[in-house]
């Protein structure tokens, strides 16, 4: 059986700057994976390339068997591959309820949008309390919830979360981690970028360590690495950028 | 008393025209972050296209107005595709598109002169005859413009506020990446915004062509007025833009009554400069 997502030898970057160099990874059906590694080594660039915001200069990306490497973001979302971007304020001058309604924009997401809205508001009661509030007046944690909520409104078949707990207080971080866990348990496969490797190990089956724009190490949860070994890996060969 | 009522009515008529024009500028601004200097020329294209179908081909005014709207919309989409899209996301985009839309203005004006010649043209009126409003007399055609403008504005507002397609235009204006990531096709949104704004300009032109002469430069004065309106009301919200249009229309009408036709543009520009100094985000804009 083919992988749900396969990224084969892609290179991508910004103008003259190459960030990803011949990067290969895959996500099987019914599994979630985690991405970690030092800052500035290309995790966000990888997700932006998969979702079509950036175009790979080499390599191929297949989602559910179809080549999506030259597709527009709107087409990729409509195929069910959805990306909740890092530290993002959705639409500053739009209210929460309006934003979530709009997020069911893709044709695939229209059926059942009402129920999904209820699910999102149940998952994030803070959003439910602030339906009429404009996005630019939200706190960092609430913005993160709105961004993930929007991604869920797209009815994802594979959901990519870029550092969902970045810069949050421990209490909010806990709340977000809880919600991400609930999403995983509801059966949506995830690609999660996080610095917290323990969080990733609890949530996903496999981890990829991304360094210098390529996969430097693949870790299977069943390898039985303990916390100390992971930390060793991370700081031992990572080297802060 | 009578002159006050007459001035009020002519102010509301001016306000209706400015509101139709400025709302298009506002739609383009909120979606693309571009100020379209060819907007007045698109209005002119609408008037000429309406004339060609209505008078040139003799098919009647209503088909003419439809043709004016459609032709202007098509021109708008082409301008967006050729003159704005290539510069999207580049540095100094705002400045570059000032130049490219000014180029479009010149091309459309010269093109109209080539196609339709220099001879003044005029459209018939939708309805003949006059109507008296509290003692002030205007033509039925003008009365229809006054009634039609709020309806068009309301429909436009409903579209941008209540439908997902309309919301998608605002979303693209506020955060392109986030819009793309919830499945909005950003280039398509650009085309829709520009086409819609141009259609509004075309409608204004086709309606105005019955009460003013159609010339290649007929759009420049309404564009200048629409610019004063958007400086007054800000470009961000349709409600503020429409409100400002009526304020400027009424102000212009009363200034003409009080200080005469000659000094009125001067006074309006003075006001515009004052607004820019004291309320840079517009009189109704967020401070
Ligand atoms: N818009 C951009 N233009 C140019 N370089 C960028 C841009 N965004 C990110 N980069 C560079 O790409 C590299 C990888 O960044 P990123 O993918 O954000 O890393 P990570 O998510 O792993 O922290 C960094 O060196 C960063 O400076
Ligand atoms: Mg990142």
Q: What's the story with the biggest beta sheet of chain A?
A: 6 strands, mixed
Q: How many DSSP helices of chain A?
A: 10
Low-confidence stretches of chain A: none
As a whole number of angstroms, the C-alpha radius of gyration of chain A is 17 Å
Provide the residue-averaged pLDDT of chain A.
Answer: 92
Largest protein interface, residues of each chain? A-B, 32 and 19 residues
Q: Detail the poorly predicted runs of chain B.
A: none
- Based on Cα principal axes, name the global outline of chain A: globular
Give the CATH class of chain A.
Answer: Alpha Beta
Write the layout of secondary structure elements.
The complex is a heterodimer of chains A (241) and B (287).
Chain A: E1 5-14, E2 17-27, E3 33-36, H1 43-50, E4 58-63, E5 66-67, H2 73-78, E6 81-84, H3 96-103, H4 107-110, H5 113-123, H6 125-129, H7 140-153, E7 158-162, H8 170-185, E8 190-193, H9 197-203, E9 206-211, E10 214-220, H10 227-237
Parallel strand pairs in A: 3-8, 3-9, 6-7, 7-8
Antiparallel strand pairs in A: 1-2, 1-4, 4-5, 9-10
Helix pairs in contact in A: 3-7
Chain B: H1 2-32, H2 39-56, H3 61-84, H4 93-116, E1 130-133, E2 136-139, H5 140-162, H6 164-174, H7 176-181, H8 186-208, H9 220-233, H10 238-278
Helix pairs in contact in B: 1-5, 1-6, 1-8, 1-9, 1-10, 2-3, 2-4, 2-8, 3-8, 5-6, 6-8, 9-10
The complex binds adenosine-5'-diphosphate (ADP) and magnesium ion.
Protein name (chain A): ABC transporter ATP-binding protein
Organism (chain A): Taklimakanibacter albus
Keywords (chain A): ATP-binding, Nucleotide-binding
